[in-house]
Amino acid sequence: MSLRKVLPVAGLLFIGFFLRVHALYRVPPGWRDDEVLETTVHAQRVLNGDFPIFFREANGHEPLYHYVSAGAILLWGRGLFQMRLVSAFFGLLTLAAHYRLARRLFGSRVALIATLALAFSFWALIYSRVKIRHISALVFVLLAFDAFLRALGVGRRAPRFTLRCGAFPWDAS
């Protein structure tokens, strides 16, 4: 990729990073109940040596966010800013994955505009600024769609295996 194409994307990710971490300890104000629960209960379980593949508390959920939170506690401590950095990190990864998928579907210019809109979107910002596990799912959904479309050959020439897979039912009949 040329420098002319990389600089706008890098600038966009820098803007997204700034929006997600600037005054993170003040906005939104105070600890939310989910932030306290996920920090003091779930991440602490991981720190105590319990590594479940599914957390049953709170109607059940996946463990990845809590494992990353436990690592953040070990690295940075338990402050509000440090805990919210985990969500900011996943929010930034979401911007990058969104750009990748949008570029595959619509090209670089539309991907840049769409990702800029996501960077300033209220809900994308608020979930990136509070410690809540839902932010970690979107990056994997976007990457899964990108992998699926890549396997189908969307955005480039269809690979031979895709053509063979399409011809198989006809050959088998």
Q: How many structural domains?
A: 1
Overall mean pLDDT: 88
* Annotation, overall tally of beta strands: 0
Order of helices and strands: HHHHHHHH
Could you write a compact summary of the structure shown?
By secondary structure, the protein is mostly helical. It has helices at residues 3-21, 33-47, 64-76, 80-106, 108-120, 122-129, 135-152, 160-172.
Label this structure with key terms.
single chain; 173 residues; mainly alpha; 8 helices; disordered C terminus
Q: Can you put this structure into words, describing what you see?
A:
The protein has 173 residues and is mostly helical. It has one domain. It has 8 helices and no strands. Helix 1 runs parallel beside helix 5 (108-120). The chain is globular. The model is unreliable at 167-173 (pLDDT under 50).
Topology:
Elements: H1 3-21, H2 33-47, H3 64-76, H4 80-106, H5 108-120, H6 122-129, H7 135-152, H8 160-172
Helix pairs in contact: 1-4, 1-5, 2-3, 3-4, 4-5, 4-6, 4-7
